[in-house]
Amino acid sequence: MATVLIALSSGRKNGYTAGLWQRAIEGAAAVDGVTVDAVHLHDYRFGPCTSCFHCIRHRGSGCTLDDDFGRHGEGELYRKATDADAVMLVDAVHNWGPSAITHLFIERLYPLLWTGTRRGLPFASISCASNQGMHHLARENLCKWAGGLGFRYVGGLAVHTALYDESLKEAQTLGSTLSEAALRYEREGAKDWSDIELYRHHVDQPWGLVAPYLHNLTSGTMDADRSLIAHGIATFRRPDAVQLLREALPELRRAVEAHAAGDAEAAIRHLVAAGSRWTHATWKEFLEDEAIGTSIPEAYRPVEE
Fold this sequence. Notes:
By secondary structure, the protein is an alpha/beta fold. It has 12 helices and 5 strands. The protein has a 5-stranded parallel sheet with strand order 2-1-3-4-5, with helices on both faces. β4, α6 and β5 form a beta-alpha-beta unit. α8 packs across α12 and α10 runs antiparallel to α11. The longest helix has 28 residues. The two termini are 38 Å apart.
């Protein structure tokens, strides 16, 4: 049996968003071999990550905070999230984006980054707006957050109540799609779900990883020689960190060139090579001896030769 966690983020249990949640549950439950765990996030008590870094120093322990997302991996909501073979968040749009409790839920999955045990986990979202909209922007944010955790974004609905009846049917279909993905994940796990596969998957998703990450590394210039990596070569103190940056810079140049030429595959390959070295270099320079006090976890953005 596969388990699908479908969480309602809206504070209203009988509103528009809750109606979409119910339809997604029905669609997921209709797939043979799937158990649906339907929860209302407001029934749980949990707060923001406090950056204590306990989950990095003690990988696999879960979060140490004494709430429903902590207790050293024994918090009820954390167990539900980490035991599931797929997760869906059904959320009401707040302030042109996801609600605060949705952001908290994603943020508190932080310990999973360091173990790599749920990479490729199927993830879906529904963002519902009833006034100005911005439901598409909310969906993009959820897709981005899923990518940041290394999840497989299998689909998302951007819903406005002006099209509510049609959206109810789409929510039911999305629930079924997520259950099918959960069955595959339960059977096969995250085979070959490398960073390259993650970037490839996001090419056709609401939030693509390549252009934003290039924008990030180049400080918006799309010029490798004006990038954070180039600046770090001149300013970082640790020789091992500088060496990683020297290896990263030509990869970043190739990624920028490939992206400009429309060669997505080459851009992804070179960007992953540059980004992983940048990640390891900054960890050594700023985190390993000071902020966190431990080496980078093996599962996190490994440097591939």
